[in-house]
Amino acid sequence: MTYSTEDSMLTKPYIYIVKNLLVDKRAYYRCIKSLKMTKGKNSTFLMFSALCLCSVSWATTFTVSNGADDGVGSLRQAINDAQTSGGRDTISIDAAVDTIILTTYSDAFGISHLTWDDTLIIFGNNVVWTTQDTGRFFQNEATSWLYDIEFLQGTARQIGGIGNGGAVWANRDIHFENCRFTENESLSRGGAAVISTNGSIMPIDTNDAVFVNCTFDSNSTGLAGGAMWVRLCNLRLENCCFTGNTSADTAPNIQNDNGVITLTGINKFDSAPHIVNGPGGSVSLAAGFEVPLGTEFVIE
Predict the structure, then answer these.
(1) How far apart are CA 100 and CA 125, in angstroms?
(2) Left, alpha or beta for 161 (phi > 0: left; psi -120 to 50: alpha)?
(3) Could you say which of 91, 232, 247, 260 is the most buried, measured as most Cβ atoms within 10 Å of its Cβ?
(4) First and final CA of the chain: distance in angstroms?
(5) What phi, psi does 122 have (nearest 5°)?
(6) How far apart are CA 213 and CA 157, in angstroms?
(7) Domain segments of the chain: what residues?
(8) What would the mean pLDDT of 57-70 be, rounded to a whole number?
């Protein structure tokens, strides 16, 4: 990313650095008091350098070297190690690993295979995660970023109100980029994902959840939101594609209850309605939003 003298980074550099370098908040606040005292023509560079050092000092990278469910070199072990290390950590999946099969549950309900409560970044290198229809991939309890991962054949079929989010239950801020959600299924809502990023009753924040260049294909649910159920949070979709998603109710793609959805770029849907707004749900079309030529956008 390149900035010119007209960019607002020069007036509030630390905001852009935190956003783009994913600096851990604790590291950020450690530095910010001294940074605000920096003056002169080199202040932007000094602030940038100091925050980069803060980021490096807090970040640890763990490598996934095999597709096993558990053990040395596994994704589960990397997440456990990241949990132990504290701070904002990174997991990088080796490009030689093409598939990770998850079979062990991490919660008492026997539904989520992975959970974590520490800030985490995962680079997938186009890996496929699959549970082979044995459960949901994960529930996050801390801010997370995930890149270049396919979530294949996750499921949430349990009764008693927990059969939601076949692939993912996003319970805190989350960012997906270049990810694919394929053939996931839930008993109730959100065939691929439940986006409820502040829990059940807390106020919404800006862009709690972001999906960029993601695809949702052939996901299904027994009630509403064949691809996604959005509730009590803000969601931004940018250049995403929805194909072949189904629900037993009226929302084959996205069910939006008390959420705010912002659309930007070209988002493609092969079936209508594209978004169904339930109680309190709203949709915002941001600058740059387009629909594919010869199609229309349907909100109910």
Answers:
(1) 12
(2) left
(3) 247
(4) 38
(5) -125, 120
(6) 28
(7) 8-56, 60-285
(8) 88
